[in-house]
Design brief:
Number of strands: 2
Largest sheet: 2 strands, antiparallel
Distance between the termini: 47 Å
Shape: flat
Helix content: 55-70%
Strand content: under 5%
Strand order of the largest sheet: 1-2
Number of helices: 4
Order of helices and strands: HHHEEH
């Protein structure tokens, strides 16, 4: 996740992308392959569970709904697996960022309350 938002020289000057200052491009490509294989395993696991009769309690998660909605479809040259995997990766990224924002917001709010309490009770 640390590579999301990293600025590389190739972003500003595309013809220098091959130089890869700092090795960020290589790390991004390796991370993308790892994330793709992980989500591919999730997708395959969900497909196998669906083939074996689905969920025991009948509740479907996000991946199951995506599989049932996009099964066998293509859109703009992308197959259903690619669309499902990319949507799941975006959801993971957004959830991670929202969790961080919630924590920061919590600490900012708590620090302001602590500051107010400090002023009220300790300034005498």
């Amino acid at each position: 996740m640390r590579l999301f938002g990293v600025f590389t020289v190739g972003d500003a000057v595309p013809w220098l992308r091959w130089f890869d200052f700092g090795g960020h491009e290589k790390a991004m490509k390796e991370t993308a392959k790892e994330m793709d294989s992980l989500v591919s395993e999730w997708l395959e696991e969900h497909r196998q569970n669906k083939a074996l009769g689905g969920k025991v309690d009948g509740v479907q998660d996000f991946m199951d709904v995506m599989i049932s909605m996009l099964d066998g479809q293509t859109s703009n040259g992308f197959d259903a697996d690619t669309m499902t995997k990319s949507t799941v990766l975006v959801c993971v990224y957004v959830q991670t960022r929202l969790s961080i924002l919630c924590c920061i917001s919590f600490f900012i709010n708590c620090s302001s309350y602590i500051f107010i309490l400090h002023i009220c009770f300790c300034s005498q």
